[in-house]
Each structure stands twice: as C-alpha cells, then as structure tokens.
Specification:
This protein is of the alpha/beta class. The chain has helices at residues 21-32, 84-95, 124-135, 148-159, 180-187, 193-213, 229-241, 246-253, 280-283, 317-328, and strands spanning 42-49, 52-59, 70-74, 99-103, 141-146, 168-174, 266-271, 293-298. The protein has a single domain, classed as Rossmann fold (3-Layer(aba) Sandwich), CATH 3.40.50.1820. It is globular. The model has no long low-confidence stretch (mean pLDDT 96).
Length: 330
C-alpha cells in the first residue's frame, strides 16, 4: 500500500477579529457555505442488518484502491454527505492522496431513499457497518467525525471497539458532544436560540421528507409539536430510536462514559468557547491511562468553526489538524 506522507498542521492562529465562540462558529458556516463536491463519486451501500442500509459516497484515487488509505467522514446533527465541514476536509484529504468516503447517517440526505429511518447519537453499529464496507476496499482507514458524528465515532470505539475492523487505524473527533444532556441544556440558553432554531428547521425539513417517503412510519405533522431540541428528542428521537425517554437517550448515547475504554489512537479536538458544548462536559471524562487518546482543547474555535489560515478550503483549520493526525499513523 502506498501511504501518502504525513505533514504537520500549522499552529492554530486565527486573526484577532475572528476570535470568540460565536464568531468562530458563524464565520465557519459563512466561509464554507459555497463549497461543492466536484470529484467523481461512487455510491456504496453499508448493510447494518434488519433491513437497515446506509448510503456512503466514495471518491477514489486512481489505480489500485488497496494502494491508498481512506478517510471516512461522519457528519453532525442535521447534516449529510454535503455538509460543508465534510466537503472541506474531504477536498484536503483527496489532495493529500487519500480516498474519501462521506457517510450519510441512517436516513440522512439521499440515504432516506435507501432506508428512511431516523438516525441518532447512539447508533454506533451503523458506523461500524460503514467502517466494514470501506474496509472491503482498502487496508488502512482513518475516521473523522464532526459534532454528533464525533460522538458516534467515540462511542463506536469505546462501546463497540471489539467490532471495529482492524483496518481502522486512527480516529479524530471534532467538537464532540460527549454529554448530550449538558449540550441540550446549553442550547436552551437565550444566546443559543438562533442555533436551536437552525437545528430545529433542519430536523423538521428532514422529518417531512421522510414522512413523504414513508407515511406509514411517520405521523403527518408530527414535526410541528416539538419546539426545542429537548422536546424533539422526547417526542421524536426517543420513540423512533427505541428509548423510553429523551433522558434515557442522552444517558445511553453519550460517548463520554466510554472514552476510557478506547484502544485506538484518537484525537479529540474541541474549543473551550464552543457555544453549544460546555467545556467541562468534555474535560470531565478520564482518558485511557495508555495515552492513546489525545484531548486538545483550544482557547477559541467555536463549534466546528476553527477558522484560521490553512490549506483546507473554507478556512477550516481543523481539517488540516485532523488529517495530520491520521497521516502520522500511516
């Protein structure tokens, strides 16, 4: 296998006027809003079992697929394979010589036409199935999860590590909500109302799309009842995900409790000024004594913002840092 050489990421040096959690978060969205995926793409289907299938979108390097490593990208809440942070990271990874596979969580984006289920933060076996699908094409895989997808990646490593295929070498979790209940509480603050409105709009639109595909599974107008993310998880996520309540969903699906069980080299990359994820909800969890998990808490960066000079499109410095970490273990 030909492994592209690694390169160190430049230090995170955002201009002074971009510092601050809200600025970093909003500017990240702004600078990446026009990113598009231009590379040839092949659709792959990951079979989870019990009729559940996931849509993965792969952009291969030319030549023998086994000769190059692959990066598997996992989107966050309300996202899909065209989420801008994933496009930025994927473009950088492909330019570095990696195959790029963009995962759609259960029912996200066009994946709803494959299986119109509702994804949630606790479906770690879905990610394991995606890993195994990619492993059929290349012997070396790195995984990068963003926000909810970052929680999913850490949950898979910690709770279902024995099932993760040996081809998976390293994992990066960018802005992971390791304590879902704490993050939902933070989202209810007055200053975070615009973020909550943004997520709720995306969730409602996705629900209506699924309801049109499977009216037998989803009640017409059911998306109009919840007004907040907490209510959404109580009324929609929990019953569709097999949880007794929203609180049980948070408890069973938060990856924080499982971080200490991780055995693969892992980078947790987050910002202390993340407006959505409280810093203490990231730092309170013990790391493995082996030192295999590295936790980098930057003073600024917002939520999946990390706006600074970088080789990655859309000024997404976290993409450069994540790829440097993956390449270091190749």
């Amino acid at each position: 296998m030909i492994v592209p050489p690694g390169r160190a990421a430049r230090p995170f040096a955002p201009p002074w006027w971009t510092r601050g959690g809200h600025r970093q978060t909003i500017l990240g969205f702004w600078y990446r809003r026009h990113l598009r995926w231009r590379l040839p793409t092949e659709d792959l289907i990951a079979d989870v079992g019990d009729g559940v299938r996931l849509l993965l979108r792969a952009s291969w390097q030319p030549g023998d697929r086994a000769a190059r490593p692959a990066v598997l990208l996992v989107h966050g809440l309300g996202g899909w394979d065209l989420a801008a942070y994933g496009l930025s990271t994927g473009a950088l990874a492909h330019a570095m010589g990696w195959h790029v596979v963009r995962m759609n969580m259960r029912g996200a984006g066009d994946s709803a036409r494959v299986y119109a289920g509702l994804y949630n933060a606790g479906l770690d076996l879905d990610l394991v199935a995606a890993m195994k699908t990619v492993a059929a094409h290349t012997p070396h895989i790195g995984v990068i999860g963003f926000s909810l997808g970052a929680n999913l990646a850490l949950l898979a490593l910690g709770r279902s590590g024995a099932l993760v295929p040996p081809q998976v070498a390293r994992v990066v979790a960018v802005s992971p909500p390791l304590d879902l209940a704490a993050c939902v509480t933070r989202m209810e603050s007055v200053t975070n109302r615009p973020y909550q409105a943004y997520f709720m709009r995306n969730l409602r639109n996705a629900y209506r799309y699924r309801q049109g595909l499977r009216p037998d599974l989803y009640q017409a107008g059911g998306e109009r009842r919840p007004r907040t993310l907490r209510e959404w998880d109580q009324m929609i996520t929990a019953p569709h995900g097999g949880y007794a309540s929203g609180e049980e969903y948070y408890q069973r699906s938060s990856a924080g409790l499982h971080v200490a069980a991780i055995r693969l080299p892992t980078l947790i990359l987050a910002a202390l000024d993340d407006p959505i994820i409280p810093g203490e909800s990231l730092t309170k969890w013990p790391l493995p004594a082996s030192g295999v998990v590295v936790r980098e808490m930057l003073s600024t960066g917002g939520h999946v913002g990390f706006v600074a000079p970088t080789e990655a499109p859309g000024r997404f410095w976290a993409a450069e840092r994540a790829m440097a970490f993956l390449a270091a273990g190749s």
